[in-house]
Amino acid sequence: QILDVQLRHVKRELEKAILSNAKKITFIHGMGVGRLKQELIAILNSYEGLRFHDAAFSKYGFGATEVVLR
Fold first, then answer.
1. Could you read off the pLDDT of 11-61 as tens digits, one per residue?
2. Among 59, 65, 68, 69, CA closest to 39
3. In contact, 5 and 48? CB cutoff 8 Å
4. How large is the C-alpha radius of gyration of the chain?
5. How far apart are CA 56 and CA 11, in angstroms?
6. Virtual CA dihedral for 8, 19, 42, 23, nearest 10 degrees?
7. Which listed residue, 15, 43, 49, 54, has the most CB atoms within 10 A of its CB?
8. In which order are the strands placed within the sheet that holds 24-28?
9. What's the whole-model pTM score?
């Protein structure tokens, strides 16, 4: 149930970033068992033209994904 809330938030923030012509957005998902990251990647793969990679370790440690929007 909490995963659904988190994924709705991801979609909402991603859409806001796209509509505001942001260059990138970073999602912090933590390390855990990887379920949130897996679902995040599935969402990101459903959009055309996005690139994403692990965010800078020096800034976020493990558990964050940076999405390049353009």
1. 999 999 999 999 999 999 998 878 999 999 999 999 999 999 999 999 999
2. 65
3. no
4. 12
5. 22
6. -120
7. 43
8. 24-28, 64-68, 51-54
9. 0.90
